[in-house]
Specification:
Elements (H helix, E strand, L loop, with lengths): L3 E2 L6 E2 L3 E3 L9 H13 L4 E3 L15 H12 L8 E6 L12 H15 L4 E6 L8 H13 L3 E7 L3 H14 L4 E5 L13 H8 L3 E4 L15 H5 L4 H4 L5 H17 L3 H10 L6 E4 L4 H10 L6 H11 L1
Parallel strand pairs: 3-4, 3-10, 4-5, 5-6, 6-7, 7-8, 8-9, 9-10
Antiparallel strand pairs: 1-2
Helix pairs in contact: 1-11, 2-3, 3-4, 5-6, 9-10, 9-12, 10-11
The chain binds NADP nicotinamide-adenine-dinucleotide phosphate (NAP).
């Protein structure tokens, strides 16, 4: 599998990241182990989680996804060197502070390392901007973790271009580690949060970009066509907003390209992202092995310029 650099960090990843927010939610532990084994055996390597996954499930506290990954690594220790582990801090109050304060980060990393059953996080992300914590304090906290060998590289998620610019400038001015990666929401249905100033900045600054909700929570697979389809899904709230003319136009364009390649629509939607300027890799989750195999096939699918443009035009 060809890998791509993550910004200027020493990390390299295959062009599809496994999204682990399904662990402890729509995927149980035995299935998670099978998905992770199949993913790595297919030559892909990056896994994205967060300290808060999957806190939204009644009865969960957050940390269930990291715990599942940690149990998998404990069961198969050789896997650790085969994966690039990505996790996040700062989306929810921790035990010792909240957001991206130094206290919160110092406490957060220990919890994540414990649950992941590892001594290092390859890529540690600020989950969302925190207006109450000065960016210099946040970057100094990360610097200490990098110096201690607990974190290899840092990045941010859900940044605005202005916020990311400020973080990069502060890092340069103070001699602190910089965010090497940005993780925005981006897919054929949601383009505004990345395209424009944030995309331009990431390209100009040579940042790695791994995008989330790559399948628009499953909508781009084409399996949701009506409100009745939604009733069967735990993801109804995330998908409802796409059931409109534009959404169906995108599905039609995906269908035409998928048929030409004898591929699935989900695979074409991911191939479009993999080919997009400035994108290092889409993040997508899977709840069974068939879906996982689609994620792998997406990395091998090459769209012609005409196909690529037909999808872009349908979603404009
Ligand atoms: N940084 C952030 O703030 C943030 C926010 C959200 C997510 N994320 C990251 O992004 C990752 C991906 O997000 P996501 O999983 O919520 O959304 P997604 O990747 O857009 O949707 C994945 C879901 O679509 C369905 N699916 C996948 N392949 C399919 C196929 N071939 N055919 C039909 N259905 C298919 C599965 O759900 P069902 O089987 O249940 O239908 C799967 O769980 C997360 O795991 C997380 O790591 C980050």
């Amino acid at each position: 599998m060809n890998t791509r650099p993550l910004g200027r960090s020493a990390l390299r990843i295959a062009p599809l990241v496994f999204g682990a927010n399904v662990f402890g939610w729509t995927v149980d532990q035995p299935t998670a182990f099978r998905l992770l084994d199949r993913f790595v055996d297919a030559g892909l390597n990056a896994v994205d989680t967060a300290d808060v996954y999957s806190r939204w499930v009644p009865g969960n506290r957050g940390g269930e996804s990291e715990t599942t990954i940690g149990n998998w690594l404990k069961a198969s220790p050789a896997r650790r060197s085969q994966v690039v582990l990505i996790t996040k801090v700062g989306a929810a109050p921790g035990t010792d502070g909240k957001g991206l304060s130094a206290k919160s980060i110092a406490a957060g990393v220990e919890g994540s390392l414990r649950r992941l059953q590892t001594d290092r996080i390859d890529l540690y992300l600020s989950h969302r901007p925190d207006a109450e914590s000065p960016i210099e304090e946040t970057l100094r906290a990360y610097e200490a973790l990098i110096q201690a060998g607990k974190v290899r590289a840092i990045g941010s998620s859900n940044s605005t271009a202005t916020g990311l610019r400020e973080a990069l400038d502060t890092a340069a001015a103070k001699g602190l580690p910089r965010y090497e990666v940005e993780q925005p929401e981006y897919n054929l249905c949601e383009r505004k949060k990345f395209e424009g100033s944030l995309q331009d900045l990431c390209i100009a600054e040579d940042l790695g970009v791994i995008v989330y909700y790559s399948l628009a929570s499953g909508f781009l697979s084409g399996k949701y066509r009506s409100k009745a389809d939604l009733e069967k899904s735990a993801r109804a709230d995330g998908v409802r907003k796409y059931l409109n003319d534009r959404g169906f136009r995108i599905l039609k364009a995906l269908d035409a390209v998928a048929q030409a390649h004898r591929a699935k629509k989900a695979e074409v939607a991911l191939a479009w992202l993999i080919a997009r300027e400035g994108v290092t890799a889409p993040i997508a989750s899977a709840t069974n092995l068939d879906q996982l195999d689609s994620l792998v096939r997406a990395t091998q699918l090459k769209l012609s310029a005409k196909e690529f443009q037909s999808l872009t035009t349908a979603s404009d």
